[in-house]
Write a structure and sequence with these properties.
Distance between the termini of chain B: 43 Å
Order of helices and strands of chain A: EEHHHHHEEEHEHEHEHEHE
CATH topology of chain B: TIM Barrel
Shape of chain A: globular
Structural class of chain A: alpha/beta
CATH class of chain B: Alpha Beta
Largest interface: A-B, 9 and 8 residues
Strand order of the largest sheet of chain A: 7-6-5-8-9
Number of helices of chain B: 11
Number of domains of chain B: 1
CATH superfamily of chain B: Aldolase class I
Distance between the termini of chain A: 80 Å
Strand order of the largest sheet of chain B: 7-6-5-4-3-2-1-8
Number of strands of chain B: 8
Oligomer: heterodimer
Helix content of chain B: 40-55%
Structural class of chain B: alpha/beta
CATH class of chain A: Alpha Beta
Number of strands of chain A: 10
Largest sheet of chain B: 8 strands, parallel
Radius of gyration of chain B: 18 Å
């Protein structure tokens, strides 16, 4: 007797749980031959709102973890991804990658997680400074996470686009809500499963699927979102995001025409795009030879 | 104690009715109306050991100026504090129309003698409290000394007199079953309470929809029986707008419009106000709001 394959239900990832969209809508994902391979949730405004609530809660917890612990957990995501690489290669091939391309994308994704895991307890060291001031103060500047970051992930890549945007955002202690690639969403839900089994507290990473055009107005106007990353070339969307961000002065980062597979697109500077600068004046006795602070 | 019928509660039926309420959604105009109504029903509360003069002052200011950026907002119904802060709150709220409510009777445990409880209540009233929130003796209730519980409430009401409204806290989280909650509600109403209230907010579970429904049913039956209208105050754990609107629906459908004013229905809450304000701003501006833009206390 032939066996009927059990198809996977692809759901979204919000607050450490896998809910379906509250809107009840879905879209069909087709493989290169035009066959339907999965039904994906068409995430709505309310799904996003729920995700922001979870991300805000998680931010308190996650940003208070030690840098060392965040490093360990990012490394753990890489470990879990390594263990399930066959599934990801298969999913990438279903939506049009060749075997070689798929393998390359999965391996690069794993390596990129390791790369950013290493930066967790180091990026502050290279981006912070002790500043010379005229007076008896120890004056120093450090980077702190911005808060809740909303992300429109690159449309072209299913997995590497997701990893390359999430890792540098969360490594400093931010939490994020990511809208996955609409046409290549298959991996995004599987990636959420990897995240869920990697000690990442629920709500730090939230992954929605759906339509960018529909969700961008909500992503960019929500006042509890502190920063937004837009990966794409749409000029109109970019302008809309920038205009809407004025409601609460979100920090906006736009990345266009990026080949995420290239190593030049991983950088500690990408981490500091999603941090805020804090400068502290700490009164001290005169210690410099000149009589001023450092 | 007056002789009254002991009524048992259909637990499944209560659960069923509550689940029908929670599946509904309220939108647009009706939602705005409900949110404003809920704001106006809040007993803005601070009952911490760490309360200070400035915290109470700040809370009073908050009650009067909920969110000045939003035009024509109602104020809260009352500020609820410990007896030693009643005088201060009264002074701060002068001319605002906001009442001062005070907890009394060895709040929150209620484990003290009647004399101490009466003194405690007197102290609050002398300082100017408009409303007194008392706790029942749950230990005596569980020992079956219903007469004791009844007499205690009656004595405190006597101390309050006509002009000070008495809210009786049943502390439903410690009563065990819905049957007990119903019985305690009946005792409290027959003994002369003006309001019955779910919880102190000090233990969990505090107010829940099923418990509130049981108490509302008790109020309804008492009203049919005696013609006396009793108020209801769920307190503790009601921190978001959606839940607050569900409570209002429950009141509307159990008791009707007559109870939908802050004369007869209150929310005991501290963080609910900000959530209601955020929802109102969302309705007005179209954008989801952040806590960053609302005062904490």
């Amino acid at each position: 007797m032939s066996r009927i394959e059990v198809l996977k239900t692809y759901k979204m990832y919000i607050g450490g749980k896998f809910p379906r969209t509250e809107s009840g809508r879905y879209y069909s994902l087709k493989n290169t031959k035009g066959e339907e391979i999965a039904n994906m949730c068409t995430g709505s405004r309310k799904d996003f709102r729920n995700a922001v609530v979870e991300a805000r809660k998680a931010f308190e917890l996650w940003s208070n973890r030690t840098a060392y612990n965040r490093s360990q957990i990012l490394y753990r995501i890489a470990e879990m991804l390594e263990g399930r690489k066959a599934q990801f290669i298969d999913e990438l091939m279903q939506i049009g990658s060749t075997k070689k391309q798929a393998e390359n994308e999965v391996f690069t994704s794993i390596d990129r997680l390791i790369y950013y895991a290493g930066w967790a307890d180091k990026y502050q060291q290279i981006s912070s400074s002790v500043n010379p001031v005229s007076g008896p103060y120890f004056n120093f500047t450090i980077q702190e996470p911005t808060g809740v970051v909303a992300v429109i992930a690159p449309e072209e890549n299913g997995l590497i686009g997701l990893v390359s945007t999430i890792a540098p955002i969360i490594v400093s202690g931010n939490s994020c809500i990511v809208l996955a690639s609409e046409s290549k969403a298959l991996c995004s839900v599987s990636f959420a499963e990897v995240v869920n089994s990697s000690d990442v507290p629920g709500g730090v990473i939230n992954i929605l699927t759906g339509n960018a055009e529909e969700l961008i107005p909500h992503f960019s106007t929500h006042k509890d979102v502190n920063s937004m990353l837009y990966c794409g070339n749409d000029k109109k969307a970019t302008q809309l995001i920038k205009e809407n961000s004025t409601t609460n002065l979100k920090r906006i980062v736009v990345k266009k025409d990026i080949d995420w597979m290239k190593n030049e697109n991983e950088s500690p500077y990408f981490i500091t795009k999603f941090t805020e600068v804090k400068t502290t004046w700490h009164p001290i006795e005169k210690i410099g030879a000149s009589g001023s602070g450092y | 104690m007056k002789d009254f019928k002991i009524i048992t509660v259909d637990q499944v039926g209560i659960g069923d009715r509550v689940s029908r309420i929670t599946k509904r959604s309220v939108k647009n105009e009706a939602k705005i109306h409900g949110l404003r109504m809920a704001l106006n029903m809040i007993d803005l509360t601070t009952l911490e050991g760490a309360d200070t003069i400035n915290k109470v002052k700040q809370l009073c200011y908050k009650g009067m100026h909920l969110h000045d950026a939003y035009p024509d907002l109602p104020t809260v119904a009352a500020i609820c504090v410990y007896p030693n802060f009643v005088g201060l709150a009264k002074e701060q709220l002068k001319g605002s129309g906001i009442n001062v409510a005070s907890v009394a009777t060895a709040f929150p445990s209620g484990n003290s003698s009647l004399e101490v409880k009466i003194t405690d209540t007197k102290m609050a009233i002398d300082a100017g409290a408009d409303e007194v929130d008392m706790v029942i003796s749950r230990g005596k209730f569980h020992q079956g000394e219903y007469n004791y519980v009844f007499d205690e409430i009656a004595k405190i009401k006597e101390t309050c007199g006509k002009n000070v409204r008495l809210k009786t806290i049943l502390e439903t989280g410690e009563l065990g079953s819905l049957d007990n909650i119903r019985r305690a509600s009946d005792i409290a109403m027959h003994a002369g309470s003006d309001f019955i209230k779910t919880s102190t907010g000090k233990i969990s579970p505090a107010a829940t929809l099923p418990v509130t429904l049981v108490m509302l049913e008790a109020i309804k039956d008492y009203y049919y029986e005696t013609g006396i209208q009793i108020g209801m105050k769920p307190a503790g754990g009601i921190s978001n707008s959606k839940l607050a609107l569900q409570y209002l629906m429950l009141v509307k459908e159990t008791l009707g419009d007559k109870w939908l004013t802050n004369q007869w229905f209150r929310f005991g809450a501290s963080s609910l106000a900000n959530d209601l304000l955020m929802q109102l701003e969302k309705q007005r501006s179209g954008n989801y709001q952040s806590k960053d833009y609302f005062s904490k206390d």
